[in-house]
């Protein structure tokens, strides 16, 4: 928790890394902020071509790793602590604008952690776990929500692997 930067260079909100000598103006442009249309949209065909040459989409690969680690963690917690209620909060994912609007109306809140353990322990009302890869970056919304949850009496933490998450949950339940 509290990690805002996980690189020697700048990181866009989408996790893509920039060269550390880029100016803030070029960072905003490359991250798709500031200039109309955004860098990614204006260069979509170039990005697709480069991703095709590389053979993988880095962002999707990172999301896939987070997904697999989260699945491993939930399965392990349910196996070792069958009486503990652990649930996912499905906020992420690519959605159409109409889906985003519908889900926002239903109460989906940007920045909510990935998992919650619904059990009081060690003076906390519950535990929230945000899964990140080793190089994953906490977004501004995630940081705001984490601080609010902590202020409300919950424990909100970041786990960078299923093993780390399990240790956190074991200690919390201990």
CATH topology of the largest domain: Trna Endonuclease, Chain: A, domain 1
Biggest beta-sheet profile: 4 strands, mixed
Assess the beta-strand content as a share of residues. Answer: 5-15%
- Poorly predicted spans: 1-13, 16-37
Number of helices: 7
Quick one: CATH class of the largest domain? Alpha Beta
Strand order of the largest sheet: 1-2-3-4
Number of domains: 2
How many strand segments?
Answer: 4
Large-scale geometry: globular
CATH architecture of the largest domain: 3-Layer(aba) Sandwich
Overview of the structural elements:
The chain is an alpha+beta fold and 174 residues long. The protein has two domains: 1-55, no CATH class; 58-173, 3-Layer(aba) Sandwich (Trna Endonuclease, Chain: A, domain 1), CATH 3.40.1350.10. The protein is built from seven helices and four strands; from the N terminus they run H-H-H-H-E-H-E-E-H-E-H. The protein has a four-stranded mixed sheet. Strand 3 (127-131), helix 6 (140-151) and strand 4 form a beta-alpha-beta unit. Helix 4 (58-80) packs parallel to helix 7. The longest helix has 23 residues, at 58-80. The radius of gyration is 18 Å and the shape is globular. The two termini are 21 Å apart. Mean pLDDT is 78; it is low at 1-13 and 16-37.
